[in-house]
Each structure stands twice: as structure tokens, then as C-alpha cells.
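FIELD: query
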Amino acid sequence: MKANDIMIRDVFYVKGTDPIRVVIQNFIKHGISGVPVVNDQKELIAYISDGDIMRYIGRHKDIVVDSLYFVNVVEGDREGFSERVKQILTLPALDIAKKKVIKVSWDEEVENVATILGKRKIKKVPVERDGKLVGVISRGDVIRHTFKGLL
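FIELD: result
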């Protein structure tokens, strides 16, 4: 089985110049947590996820992480969060998106796609053909198609 056998072809994506407001609207409207970022030729240039947005709005110079669950505010302006939330909405997607994109070719074996998703601990991977974005595969897609008919 190949990537193009299981990939989602109707891919939601944004352009690098689209503001983060558009990215977040796509997340909410389509119930997704990440989108490929493309240029005008639909070439994959980055990927932006909800994690990228969390890292931006949650950035603090005034916190100390004591353990896995506890964060202590040492000092600082708690209003910084509100300002970052307002500011991020107008930033271009490319400003906070990951430029090093893990991607697969449309003819990649699904076993290799599963390996990439598992080892890299990512939720989904864009699929390219001839340098153009043609689909996306999530962990759920691999599970559904791999175990279809076996349960």
C-alpha cells in the first residue's frame, strides 16, 4: 500500500503570507490542528501546528518549570500573554511555522509513513508529488487503512 492510496486529497492549507488569524480560523472551522504552508505554486514551504501557536503565545521569560506538572511564576508582567494573543493574529503564518518540514512522497510505502509518524512523534505528514502538495496523511489514516478488514 502506498501513501497515495490512503492520503487525504482535499487538503486545507495556508499561504506563507496569510495571517495567523486565517490559520486559527481553519483550525476551528475544520477541526484540525495543523496545516501545510505553501507558496503561490502550491509548493510546500513550511508547516504550522497548534503547538507552534502555543509556543508563541505561551512564551514567558518569567516562569520556571519545577516538574512535569508545575509552573511557578517568578516575576513579570502577566499581561504579556494578552498582548501576544493579540499580536499573533496579524503575524504571517511563515513567521512562526516550522520551515523544516517532514514530508513523504506520494508513492512512499505506508509502512515507512507509519515509521516516520511514530519515530518523529508527529500527528500528520504532508504528501508531495513532483514538488507540489497533493495530500496529507494522519496517524488515524494509517490506523484505519492498515487494520481495515482485520477487526
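FIELD: remark
Residues 3-147 form a domain with the CBS-domain fold (CATH 3.10.580.10).
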